[in-house]
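Students often ask what a holo structure prediction actually looks like on paper. The answer is less mysterious than it sounds. You provide the chain, you provide the ligand, and the output is a string of discrete structure tokens encoding the 3D arrangement of the protein together with D-malate.
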Amino acid sequence: MFKINDNYLKLPGSYLFSTIGRKVSAYSAAHPDKKIIRLGIGDVTQPLAPAIIEAMHSAVDEMGHAETFHGYAPDLGYAFLREAIAENDYKARGCGISADEIFISDGAKCDSGNIQEIFSLDNKIAVCDPVYPVYVDSNVMAGRTGTYDKATETWSDVIYMPCTAENGFAPQLPKETPDLIYLCFPNNPTGAAITRVQLQEWVDYANKVGAVIIYDAAYEAYISEEDVPHSIYECEGAAACAIELRSFSKNAGFTGVRLGFTVVPKELKCGGVALHDLWARRHGTKYNGAPYIVQRAGEAVYSEAGKAQLKEQVAYYMKNAGYIYHGLKEAGFTVSGGVNAPYIWLKTPSGMTSWEFFDYLLENANVVGTPGSGFGPSGEGYFRLTAFGSYENTVEAVDRIKALNR
Ligand code: MLT
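The corresponding structure tokens follow.
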């Protein structure tokens, strides 16, 4: 008789964005006349930049001819893309990451869920609270998190690092020593960023205690402040203790195209074993690569035209972020984020819980956001709005919220 992986049964509820999707569909079915504005999931709305479309068209044409047709991609991804990444995302920022330390994938969500596979089940993870749910849920599925306490909404074997208004939404070094530390900056969901000096403290700490930092830099394109690092490898010693996850979803609008990459420096070792070799083995065994057409599209992100067009696209979303931030502040909300990230984090008004405010906004303003408590217990009493909507919808949503009689 077969048995299931009953770690799955320990997962409380469904995936956050699936729950929201269901609630919104139910509301929409009951009120077909209402125009709902979705500022919940961080999904982009602007079309792909012309340089990217052009690269995709020409790659499609190549696939139509025997001489230029491409089958399976190389295990780590095409050299043309890995070299463009090494040059633009790393060398240009003074980071010594080489193309053969870069693994192309179909996105950072998969990589952030899969990366835990190369670590022992005995490892103790530390996560920010609130946190992108994939880090914790994927460790639950693997059986690394102990038991769930419904009352506190925490796992017995997870170290939580509260990110609150008091600490500027930046985690403190944990009292208990972790083996794996998940950090995401600029942060999802709070929109907070940390400085290079602050990140260096984490790198020094990880090297001291022998921990690995899994650094999610999916939102680096939104950084506007000089002292905020774009990559963890801007910190000294990071190549010996950090894996970096990157995405093309937010900087280039690839949420529906799918492309990302993970950097595993060769210097990062456990005893004599390089984590690079383990991830390469996993990649080779379980993955057949992002499509050629998509990798060519990724290459176009680094072309001169691509860079200029995407700078404009990021500015477009950041204009939305500014509109939400200032609009809600004017309306009396306590808001943060939105300066180095496309997320605005606001305190729910009148002591409402995060989900109460979700329902209130959906019903009274027909605006969808994300309840902070869905990201962890310290997110209770907070709410996240994304800047990835169209400008017109963003303005309308903020104006509707401002008009609510609170
Ligand atoms: C979010 O809304 O938190 C993100 O869009 C989710 C993701 O990138 O997978």
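The longest helix spans residues 304-330.
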